[in-house]
Input
Amino acid sequence: MEQIPYILAIESSCDDTSAAVLYGNKVLSNEVASQEVHTAYGGVVPELASRAHQQNIVPVVDRALKIANIKPSQLHAIAFTNGPGLMGSLLVGTSFAKSLALALDIPLVPVHHMHAHILAHLIEDAHPKQILFPLICLTVSGGHTQLVLVKGPKSMDILGETIDDAVGEAFDKAAKILGLPYPGGPVIDKLAQTGNPDFMTFGRSLVDGYNFSFSGMKTSFLYNLQKKVKEDPDFVAKHLNDICASYQNALLDVLFKKLELAVKDYGIKHVAIAGGVSANSGLRKRLIQLGTDKNLTIYLPPFEYTMDNAAMIGIAGYYNLLAEETAPLSISASAKIKF
Ligand code: KG4
Ligand code: ZN
Output
């Protein structure tokens, strides 16, 4: 493609409806409509998520185009998340993207949601310096926990991943047990900042190789807390910050054990984080320290690109478009899709 393309990107894999406009690797707009409807349930309700996407998608796309000051006729391609994610949610974005690509007679570019979280680092202005490969990316979100060896924008291999719950889920479920609102990750992060990370000890599940396991840690959290509350009914209220700091510390210990192992084994000098949990202040602090101790370059994503957003779909779509990876209009969403 000789011309720098204008790309409209759509993300609807979970509970955020998002649309962005990119000019090549430059983000012109990135609009996100988060769904409040799930707060009362302490987690995402798939059926409600797809209905909310259906209501949000047109206004969100409209806003993204207006902010970018781009007319639909100026677009060169439509990028969209075609998996993984919740089927009903994915279908809303996929159907919308297909209809618009058909109406405008422009290419349709499918994007893997987990590639996109990583490629958000390649958005122009995401970092003051150029990203160097190979790097290892720890992708941590509400649905995934992966250690990925990234050799280039189109060359990535999973080294390890969770065998059960994602680390974001481990944050959210603990928050629910503590009676904190959903999503619990940012709330635990904030409370943990003024807590003592050594106040309580929680079990750290360590499975083989570069894989992770978090479901046992959530159970250990519940049982440990129940025991303490039996001894003192006001235990949670009295020690909320310390409980959060100790649990977060246990989760981070597991993440760093595997990350450090992979960095050492592969002789990697560049490390990135991605996904919703990469906004965590404790994780960021610890990673910066690791960079100093082991002489590594650390890439922290700007906060607006950590949670689900369409700008990351746009940048991944841009690289797919350069590789001529477009899709026919018969393409469908895939809840589970090969990395
Ligand atoms: O990437 P994301 O927006 O959606 C998925 O693809 O899952 O990630 C959402 C997850 C939630 O579990 C949320 O609690 C967590 O990211 N999260 C955090 C923080 N901000 C968001 N977890 C820990 N600390 C944070 N500051
Ligand atoms: Zn995500």
User: Anything to note?
Assistant: The beta strands are 6-11, 16-23, 26-34, 77-83, 108-112, 135-140, 145-152, 155-161, 270-274, 297-299. The mean pLDDT is 95. The pocket of KG4 (ligand 1) is lined by residues 14, 141-143, 168, 171-172, 183-186, 189, 275-277, 279-280, 307-308 (CB under 6 Å). The CA atoms of residues 252 and 283 lie 7 Å apart.
